[in-house]
Amino acid sequence: MTASSNEPLPATRLPIYRNAFDFERLIREFPLPDVFEQTVWRWSPERIRALQEERFLRIVEVGWKNPFYRRRWSAAGLAPGDIRSLDDIVKLPTYNSDDVKESLEARPPFGDFHDVDIADLPARGPLKMQTSGGTTGAPRPTLFDAWAWEAQAVIGARALYIQGARPGDVIQIPMTASLANAGWLSYKGCHDFLGMLPLTTGSGVVTSSRQQLEIARRFGTSIWHCFPEYLIRLAQASQDELGRDVRDLKTKFLRTYLGPDLDGSLRRELEERWGCPAYDAYGTNEISAGAFECQARDGLHFMEDSVYMEILDPETGQPVAPGERGNLVATVFFRTLPPIIRYNLRDLGRLAHSGRCACGSHFRRMDHFLGRSDAMVKLRGVNIYPMACLPAVRSDARTTGEWLCVVERVDVAGVPRDEMDVHVEVRRDAASRDGLREALEKRLKDDLGVVVRVRLVDEGALAELANTNGREGKPRRLLDRRPAFQPQQGQP
Ligand SMILES: [Zn+2]
């Protein structure tokens, strides 16, 4: 006899998660990984565009009900009904993180783009808040309702499935389940929608590299998901601390974020050290898993049924010609709280390879994430992207591969002049530093088209400043010390 025999129970009044969204409808709109792989993933470009148009028009209706978009769209002279097709998307104004910041200040803590106040929380059901990494100012919140939280997990799981993950795989996720989104997305995707065993070991700060490797060996980790800097650190720690080649782990693949690895050197290093493929991905807390590589590793496919990506000229805001570099501008189809409609991510990308991929999909691809457009420095008339230092820094085995560009305004005989120093870490075991600085300066001048100074620093010296010590988030490559470029708040 148990207390819960057959006696009827009162219904709960709590806003419980499983009642907060229609699961069957969700997986019809955003098919599960194996179903997706046989259907939407293989659709013709025309059919994909028709789906995008339908979803776009639906999200525009949501936008008109939202004070942030209504205000901005009305100010641009638009009225409901003016947007009739996906081609009309260019009529809608874009917005960026500065507009989000303004919205947050005007209506704290979530901003009118969310249209939610603290007092509304009980009625809005279970919500989850994630934030941007805060690499450029105060972290920006993005709320997830149950629908968006599930949808992003399905979408993340699809990318893993296309890359070859299958039920029973053990995935190690050395990322902390913090306000940053990637670790959560990864955990939920592979656990809820792929039947994999996630080992949520947390970043290197939580679980040391040596422990990470011991856990992997003991429980048979077959896939890793984390930032490339940490994967290299793990490979090195395996050698230094355990005296074992990390290739002994027989890893199936690495899921990571290669960034602007234009000459492929970062990928080569990862793949050689680990002895398995490394798949690139691109995402933010607003768009989730926005783009990912398939097994062909020939560009990052946009997740076309979930996020519509445009590439716009940073100066004119107009669409660039195919193959030209521009800002990634996202419209998200699986979110209504907040809607994301023409959000200028100010991350640079370039559409590559029109036509069908070797994997069989027509999903459009970008060749690389090319760095942040607001991280560009104009130095004596030349546009410089700090990420463009990567090939030079990695060209000499004596560096650790880590660098930080420091820009300062100096006074040369009464004339202000901007100078950039590139701080480069030198490996502790480098036999000598002879000629290293000169070689790097020469290569950087060739690559950047302008003279910069190189300062050699000891291994680990940039860990805090450049965020390369295995902590959360992307490494930082630019420190702008010019007075006009000082962040107002929140900068680490
Ligand atoms: Zn492909």
Summarize the structure.
The chain has helices at 23-29, 33-38, 45-64, 67-75, 97-106, 146-162, 182-193, 209-219, 228-242, 265-274, 390-393, 436-448, 463-466; strands spanning 128-131, 141-144, 170-172, 197-199, 223-225, 253-256, 278-284, 288-293, 300-302, 307-312, 325-332, 343-352, 365-372, 377-379, 382-384, 399-412, 415-426, 453-458, 478-480. With 492 residues, the chain is α/β, with parallel strands linked by helices. The structure holds zinc ion.
List strands and helices in order, with pairings.
Blueprint: H1 23-29, H2 33-38, H3 45-64, H4 67-75, H5 97-106, E1 128-131, E2 141-144, H6 146-162, E3 170-172, H7 182-193, E4 197-199, H8 209-219, E5 223-225, H9 228-242, E6 253-256, H10 265-274, E7 278-284, E8 288-293, E9 300-302, E10 307-312, E11 325-332, E12 343-352, E13 365-372, E14 377-379, E15 382-384, H11 390-393, E16 399-412, E17 415-426, H12 436-448, E18 453-458, H13 463-466, E19 478-480
Parallel strand pairs: 3-4, 3-5, 5-6, 6-7, 16-19, 17-18
Antiparallel strand pairs: 1-2, 7-8, 8-9, 9-13, 10-11, 11-12, 12-13, 14-15, 16-17
This protein binds zinc ion.
